[in-house]
Amino acid sequence: MFAEVMEGLAVKVDGTYLDGTFGRGGHARGVLQRLGPGGRLLVMDKDPDAIAVAAALAEADPRVAWRHASFAALAGWDATAAGLDGVLFDLGVSSPQLEEAARGFAFGKDGPLDMRMDPGAGESAAEWLARASAQEIADVLWTYGEERHARRIARAIVARRGEQPLVRTAQLAALIAQVVPRGDGRIHPATRSFQAIRIHVNRELDDLAAGLDAALARLKPGGRLVVISFHSLEDRIVKQFMARHAKAPPANRRLPVAAAFTPTLRLLGGARKAAPAEVAANLRARSAVLRVAERLGEAA
């Protein structure tokens, strides 16, 4: 959704923008093309491979600064203290991460069962599955993957690890396929479980909530917040956050006087989906949802 993102950010030539999910820099380069010599682009990513690309871009362009961290920590970066004219979050796993079997994100490619955005930090999927209780695993699969067979899968994982460690993506995918009915066959039985485990291992929803708060704190009046989500759990958090800061809550009849409400965001349209041509070229785009909001001034 490159064109839609650029439209949403409405880049000012002398503005300061933050791409919180640099990836391989597609959106970031689009922002740079629209910035003048006095503009600035700040980029963040958890993935060291992405940051290596960002560092090379910064070497070639003095308008770019980078930080190896989650966007949840953007307000703690001194470079954002003067305020931002736009913030972009392109959520979820990137195409390069899915395509590299060694990262362990894709069940269709056998590799180490890792799934960490930053392989040098935190607990891998294999390490978590080796110690978590069946109840904890089932809760994660249901909460983050909406997997109807969460308990059955969790029991199978605990039973299998008693016989041999689960350390490969192919092992886990095959185990889930054995215990979950394939249904209509449109998606692999392991799809929801892999999504849930990835979200849990990377604390993605917690980071999203913290990142949205941090973005609002750093956006200047007139600055744009642009977020692309890829599943309903993410989009629900984004939608509710934007609505909470843009619309007064429903009146409470039990209170004699309604509490004063001053909006800090203005919604710019509703949810937008990728155009059919983009979906035809990139199937992953079919689940993308883009939302845009503008920061209001304190006196709005």
SS class? alpha/beta
N-end to C-end Cα span: 30 Å
In total, the number of domains comes to 2
What is the CA-based Rg, rounded?
21 Å
In CATH, the topology of the largest domain is named Rossmann fold
Strand residues, percent:
15-25%
* Biggest β-sheet description: 8 strands, mixed
- Mean pLDDT comes to 91
CATH domain class of the largest domain: Alpha Beta
Q: What is the chain-wise order of helices and strands?
A: HEHEHEEHHHHHHHEHEEHE
How many strands? 8
Low-confidence stretches: none
Helix count? 12
CATH architecture term of the largest domain: 3-Layer(aba) Sandwich
Please identify which CATH superfamily of the largest domain we are dealing with.
Answer: Vaccinia Virus protein VP39
Q: Tell me the overall shape.
A: globular
Name the helicity range: 40-55%
